[in-house]
Each structure stands twice: as C-alpha cells, then as structure tokens.
Specification:
The complex is a heterotrimer. Chain A is an alpha/beta fold. In chain A, about 35% of the residues lie in helices and about 30% in strands. Chain A has 2 domains: about 1-10 and about 40-245, Rossmann fold (3-Layer(aba) Sandwich); about 250-305, Alpha-Beta Plaits (2-Layer Sandwich). Chain A has helices at about 20-30, 65-70, 95, 115-125, 130-145, 160-170, 190-205, 220-225, 240-250, 285-295, 310-320, and strands spanning about 1-15, 35-50, 50-55, 80-85, 100-105, 180, 210-215, 225-230, 235-240, 250-260, 270-275, 275-280, 300-305. In chain A, α4 runs parallel beside α6 (about 160-170) and α5 packs antiparallel against α6 (about 160-170). The radius of gyration of chain B is 20 Å and the shape is globular. Classes of the chains: A alpha/beta, B mainly alpha, C mainly alpha. The interface of A and B includes residues 76, 89, 100, 114 and 121 of A. Chain B: This is ABC-2 type transport system permease protein.
Chain lengths: ~325, ~270, ~250
C-alpha cells in the first residue's frame, strides 16, 4: 500500500527578471522579461503507508515546493501525484481531512487572539471530528506534548517552541493519516527540538501515520527517518537508507586511535588531541590501513567510524553529488 | 451529485454557519476580557456616530431639506448606513482588510487552502470582531429615532430589508473583488479608496455632483448601502429598484466567486 | 542652530524615504480629502448661490493636506514596539525625528494633493483672490503647528493605553466638528459657534481657510498663538511624565 506516489513531477514558474536602474524599472512597466525557473525536474518516489521518510536538500532545492504540491496548495506543471489515492490539488474535503501540513516557520495560523483550547475546538468543528474521538485524542496529545499549561493561553503569547507543540496538536487532533512536516524544529533550542522529535516518533508508533519530513538538522533526520530522499536543484539525487547515503556520499571512513606514536603517515589527520588521533582513510583501504597501524604503532584503542552526517551532507550540498 | 458537493466544499451551509457562530462567540469572550479596550471601543462608536449625526443636524438648523431629504429621513439614512457599517465591521473587515499583506505575503491563504471548507468562505467570512456590533446597535437606535412619527408601509419595510441584505452582499463581493486584485498586483491596495468611497454612502447620492453620483451608483455602488434602502422604506417600494438591487447582489456575488477562483488558479499555478 | 541643521538633515532623508511609497501617500490624500469634499457638496446644496462656500471648502482641503499629522502611526508605534528606547539614547531630541517625518509626509501630501485642489477649484470656478491666499500663509503655518501639537499630544497617550488610534480618532472628530469641516463655523448655531471660536480646532483648519477664501479678512493670529503656547506646555509636561513611566517600566 502506498500512501504517496510521485511520478515525474515537474514544476516550473516564470519569474520576472529585474535589472537595476530607473530605465530598466520604467521599461519593465511596459514589457517584462521573464525567465523560467525549474523548481522540480522529473521527481519520482513513493512512500508506503506507515513509512517515515526524511526529505533533505540545500535551501532552494525544491523541498517546500514538493510539500506544497503534495498537500494541494500548488498545482505542478507536469507529472502525476497520488496521495492516499487522491490528486492533492483538487483539494477535496475528504482528502484534506486525512492529511496535515505543518510548517515550522508558521506552525499556527488562524486568529492569534484565540486561546489554544478555543483553536482546538474550532479545528474539531472544521474537521468534523466526533466529540468522543476529540476528547480521547486531546487527552493523548495533552500527555505527549505537555499541552496542559498552554490550553488557556492566547496563541500570540506562546513562545516558538510552544507554538510548534500547539501547531502539531492542531494538526493531529483530527488524526491525519499522512503528515507533511516542513522543518518542524527550526529555531528551537536543543531540548524543545528533541521533545518534538520524540513526539513525532511516538505518534507514528501509535497511529501508523505516514510522515514526510524536511529538516536542516541531521539530528531530526537521523533519529526519525529510516529512509532519506535527497533532492538538489529539483532532482532526486539519492533515495534509500541513511547508512548507505553516507557510504555513497563519502568515500572515506574515520579511524579513531589512541596511541603514543605518530600515525601521520597512514592517512590524513583530521583531529588530534593528547594522544587521540582521527584519520581519514579511503573506504576500501580501511582494512589494510588498520592492519598496518596495529603493526607499526603501540595502539591503546582503535575504532572505525562513519564520518558525521552533518559533514557528509555539507560536502554533498557544496560539491554536488556526482 | 449532492455527495460530491459536500465532498468538494466540505459540508453544507449549516457547518459554515456553525463555524461563524463559534468563531464569533470565541472572539466575543476574548474582547469582553479586555475591559478597557471595550470601553474605548464603545465610546468611540458613540462619538463617531454622534459626530456624523451632529454634522447633519447642523445642516438642518439652516435648511428644512437637503437634496429633497428631510431631517427625519436623513436620520433613517444615517441609521441604515451605520447598521450596515456595523455588520461590515463585524463580519467582513476582520477577514479581508489588508488581504495582500496578511493573506498572500504571510501565507495565511496556504492555511485556508488546506482546510476542508470553501477557501472563499474561510478567507472572507470566518473571522469576526464582535465589538463592531456596537455600531450596528447604535445604527438601529438612530433608525428608530428617524422612523418615529413616520408612516411606514409593510411593503416598504420588506423592501428595505431586501435591499439592506442586497447591500451587504454587494459590500462583501466588492471586498472580495478588491482582495482578489492582490493575486495579480499585490502592491496595489485599493481598499483605502473603498473605505473613502464608503464615507460618501452616509449621504443621499442626490447631494453629489453628477460624475460622483454615477460612480457611487454603478462603480462603487454605495448608493445601495443606504440611499436606496432608506428611500424604499420612506417612500414605498419600487419594483424596478428592488429587482435592480437583487440583480446587483447576485451579479456581484457571482463575479466575486469567479474572481476568487481565477485568483486561486493563478496562486496555485494551475493556469501557467 | 544645531537643532535646525539636524532637522533639515532629517527632513531631507525622510522626504527621500517616503518618495518610494507614493501609492500609500496617494491613499492618504484620498482619505484626507473625503470629509471636506462631503462638506463642500452638502453646503453647496444648502446655499447654491454662494460661491464663497466652494472657495472655502477648496481652501479647507488644501489646509487639511498641508496640516495632516500621523503621529499615532509614526510615533506611537515606536512606543509599542519598544524602538523608542534607541531614540532616547541618541544625542538629539526625539521630537526632531518626529517633526522631520511629519513635515516630509505633509510635503508629499501637498504635492500629490495639489492637482486635486486645483482641479476642484477650476471645476467649481472658485475664483480665489490671490492677495487673500497670500494673507492666509502665516495662519496656515500656525495651524500646521497646532495640528501637530494636538496629534502628538494624543499620540503620547500610547505611554498609557494601547488604544491610541481610538484616542486620536476621537481627536480628529473634534477637529471635524469644531474646526470647520462639518460646517463653516459661522453657520453653527450661536452657542456652539461661540464655543468653537474659543476651542483650538478652529485655528487648526477653519480660520486659515476662511481667510484664504476671503470670507474673513484677518485677525485671530493671537488666538492661534495662545493655543500654541498652551499646547506646547501641555505636551512638554505629558512627554516628561510619559518618558519617566516608559523608562520605569523598562520595555
């Protein structure tokens, strides 16, 4: 059973070209020049029901555009999309009741004067949630998101972390089956971010919801998503498990050793601090190098590690993937 | 077919009315909680109407009628104007004023598109500011003051009601149309002109010079919000005016709906 | 002297800054013009044979544009969002920035509104006597000072309430009613006329317009100046108390 199916999805739009200077400004009033921006280029992937997938890529790669198309806000220029067997941009009510799109940059919409409880109550009406279900879900969300102290507060008086919790509660009160989370931890401090992560994973475990999540924080992706889809300049560059991504992106591994000797000859030194060394070694030479290290030096301790994900991704974003 | 309709628009009119009702009562509870602001708003509503009435009363210390309207008739007109202004301030303005800024640039429209109810309804009618109803109540007061001593006919009252409703629909439709401009030209904010033209509605259109009168009757039909219903109430209904008013309301509403759909198509990239 | 230089600098800067917002300024012009325009139509309907009515209201439009003040938007917002703190730290009186912006907006409004005024004047064959217009200049200048002081005074209530727009709105209603926009002061019922002639609002709008329209030959500059002195005194006191409160609350 697939929850989300995307085939050859393309999105291009025309953007006016602005040049500096008064003459250009006047000229653009009469005749505007446009250039076509290809935001998405033949993107294809499928997500099974109950799967949690991470959607990563540099700024402007097309992540948010894809999310907007999948949730029905935007109409693509080409390709086919099925979310829960619906075409999202028809925005049929039955479909909208089964999905949620939460953006970390603006987690709660609606009137900011209302209290959290009032806003939830409004959601209940809007999404036709039966009262008993509402009460049960609310009780669960209260416990999971620590909502209780927030219920009587006004939306505009909430801090960023509280807004995100409330935003999630407002989205999940109608128990959507597919959840699009766009940078849910943006701007949050470490503990607020980890609270959100724990919550998402518990929700998924309890309800079997399908989640597509974008984030710039690898901690989010690494802890939540068994599968990653990496897009760059509108194309899918990688789709698979997290572990393989770093193997593919980074042809190196790290060897961490504690020794009194000098291992500089065995690989590129990335770090060193009182007897602790970290060497960067090509992946296929790890076994050989380790053997030679153990023979040549008096090694107290040795460990082989994958390079940190942040670094790998950073390299990939900068240098491109091919 | 009926099933498909509910599927597409997310529930019938009953649900929409309930949403308005719930939104209203929530907003009311909030605004009553801020006592001082409440006092300020009530006072300003009083002085605002007082100023408007005073400006007219001054005129009637110097003349018995103005453009064919007597003092009592003028009060009916001001009352009707105030009543519609109050309803507009309560149910329409909180949604659509500054739509280019709040709706499009801040992405509030995205949120509405995701909700299972008509996006036009959500964007144009879902929020309300109950305190503006004070103006509505005061309007009824002035209307009563003006009516006292007049002889009214049942037909006149009914056609007044019909025309007031038509005026409200046209007001809503005009606000939607002005908001829709933001889909094409987000920098152009015409609603200030709308608000200014609205001020002219407080006087019978007969007062103004011909070009302005034409604009107020056909372009920004401010004549419909006060002059026309008041005339119907005081001087008896005219079939032509009644039909014209209802047609204007229907036409404006259809136009607003079409403009909204076209705007959304553009916004969601469905056309290009 | 230094104050004048600072003000001149600020003014030039503000005029340039506002030049980009011409559409917004145009909407302000329209808003300012509506009320006197209604008065013009209403009173012309009452006195169809009196050409001085049209002349008077054209002058009122002009005076309104040249004296518009928006301190509830420009200044009060600085109290609400807390940026007033930065201003208080700078080695120049805060009011210079406020006045600079005020004058810049007025300059733009006058410039953009001039065509409206000239067109209305021609359309109505208002027939101004140019020596009367010239004579009204000092009255307009003092009127501009009065309107600024009045609006700024009301804008200062932002130190105490968050409903400054309601307060200033009430102030504008007073100007509308007693200043000569709703009706020329001379047409008010006797008691009210006498009250209006003492209140400062007539000096903000109706007086200079009447002189420019030739409905009154002169006099009354003393009355205007007395109110300038009174308002300056009140503004100064309220400003001091307000700033003390602001810095005590510490936002």
């Amino acid at each position: 059973m697939t929850a989300v199916e995307v085939e050859n999805l393309s999105m291009s739009y025309k953007a006016p070209v602005r040049k500096g200077g008064l003459r250009a400004a006047l000229g653009s009033l009469v005749k505007r020049e446009y250039k076509t921006v290809q935001a998405l280029d033949e993107v294809s992937f499928a997500i099974a029901r109950g799967e949690v997938a991470g959607f990563i890529g540099p700024n402007g790669a097309g992540k948010t555009t894809t999310m907007k198309i999948l949730s029905g806000i935007l109409h693509p220029t080409g390709g086919a999309v099925q979310v829960l067997d619906n075409v999202p941009w028809q925005r049929r009510a039955v479909f909208l009741k089964r999905i949620a799109f939460v953006r970390g940059s603006q987690p709660v919409g609606g009137s900011q004067e209302l209290t959290v409880m009032d806003s939830l109550e409004y959601q209940r009406l809007l999404y036709d949630v039966p009262r008993p279900d509402f009460r049960r879900t609310l009780a669960e969300l209260e416990a999971l998101l620590d909502l209780e102290p927030l219920l009587e507060r006004q939306l505009r008086a909430l801090s960023l972390g509280e807004r995100m919790r409330v935003g999630l509660a407002m989205a999940l009160i109608y128990r959507p089956e597919v959840l699009f989370l766009d940078e849910p931890t943006i701007g949050l401090d470490v503990s607020a971010a980890s609270q959100i992560r724990e919550f998402v994973s518990e929700y998924v475990e309890q309800t079997g919801a399908t989640v597509l999540l974008t984030s710039h924080y690898m901690a989010d992706v690494a802890s939540l998503c068994p599968r990653l889809i990496l897009i760059d300049r509108g194309r899918v560059e990688y789709d698979g498990p997290l572990a393989e991504l770093s193997a593919r992106l980074s042809p190196y591994k790290l060897i961490r050793i504690s020794t009194q000797g000098d291992p500089t000859a065995f690989g590129e030194v990335v770090e060193k601090a009182d007897g602790q060394w970290v060497l960067r070694v090509p992946r296929d030479e790890v076994a050989g190098t380790t053997g030679r290290l153990l023979q040549a030096l008096d090694v107290v301790d040795l460990a082989i590690e994958e390079p940190p994900l942040e670094k790998v991704i950073d390299q990939a974003y900068r240098g491109g993937l091919r | 077919m009926a099933d498909r309709r509910t599927a597409v628009y997310g529930g019938g009119i009953v649900k929409l009315l309930r949403l308005v009702g719930v939104g209203f009562s929530m907003a009311l509870r909030r605004s009553v909680a801020f006592r001082i602001n409440l006092v300020f708003d009530v006072l300003l509503a009083f002085t605002g109407l007082g100023t408007a009435v005073a400006a007219v009363l001054i005129v009637f210390t110097r003349a018995d009628s103005l453009a064919g309207w007597s003092k009592a008739e003028f009060l009916v007109l001001i009352g009707t104007y105030q009543l519609i202004t109050g309803l507009r301030g309560t149910f329409i303005d909180p949604n659509l004023s500054w739509f280019p800024e709040t709706g499009i640039r801040n992405g509030k429209l995205d949120g509405y598109l995701l909700q299972p109810a008509s996006s036009l309804f959500l964007a144009s009618l879902s929020l309300s500011s109950p305190l503006a109803l004070i103006q509505f109540v005061l309007g009824i007061g002035v209307l009563g003051w003006g009516i006292a001593g007049q002889s009214l006919t049942a037909a006149g009252v009914v056609s007044w009601l019909v025309l007031v409703v038509a005026g409200l629909v046209v007001t809503w439709a005009l606000s939607v149309l002005l908001a829709c401009l933001a889909f094409w030209a987000p920098k152009l904010q015409l609603d200030v002109f709308f608000h200014s033209a609205w001020q002219l509605g407080r006087y019978p259109t007969d007062v103004f010079a011909r070009p302005i009168r034409v604009v107020l009757t056909y372009v920004f039909p401010m004549a419909l919000i006060a002059s026309v219903p008041s005339a119907a109430l005081l001087r008896g209904p005219q079939v032509g005016v009644l039909v014209g008013g209802v047609l204007a309301a229907v036409g404006a509403a259809v136009l607003a709906g079409a403009a909204w759909r076209a705007g959304l198509r553009r916004y969601t990239g469905a056309t290009s | 002297m230094r104050t004048a230089v600072l003000l001149g600098f600020r003014l030039r800067q503000e005029v340039l800054e506002w030049s980009g917002a011409w559409w917004f300024l145009l909407t302000l012009v329209v808003q300012a013009v509506v009320a006197p325009l209604i008065g013009l139509f209403v009173w012309s309907a009452v006195y169809p044979d009196d050409p001085s009515i049209a002349r008077y209201y054209v002058a009122v439009i002009l005076v309104t544009l040249m004296t518009e003040s928006f301190e509830q938007h420009t200044f009060s917002e600085r109290i609400y969002d807390g940026t007033l703190s930065h201003e208080l730290l700078r080695p120049q009186p805060v009011v210079i920035g406020v006045i600079g912006m005020n004058l810049a907006i007025r300059a733009w409004l006058t410039l953009l509104g001039a065509p409206v005024v000239v067109l209305t004047g021609f359309a109505l064959r208002a027939g101004f006597d140019w020596s009367a217009v010239l004579r009204s200049t000092p009255y307009i200048v003092v009127a501009a000072v009065l309107v600024f002081l009045w609006t700024f005074l009301l804008a200062l209530t932002a130190f105490w309430t968050d409903r400054v727009h309601a307060v200033v709105g009430f102030g504008s209603q007073l100007i509308f009613l007693f200043g000569g926009t709703a009706a020329p002061i001379g047409l008010l019922p006797d008691t009210w006329r006498r009250v209006a002639e003492v209140l400062p609002f007539y000096g903000m709008n109706g007086l200079p317009a009447e002189i420019a329209a030739g409905r009154r030959s002169g006099g009354g500059l003393g009355y205007q100046l007395i109110w300038v002195v009174v308002l300056v005194a009140v503004v100064t006191v309220v400003w001091r108390i307000g700033v003390r409160r602001y810095t005590a609350v510490g936002s």
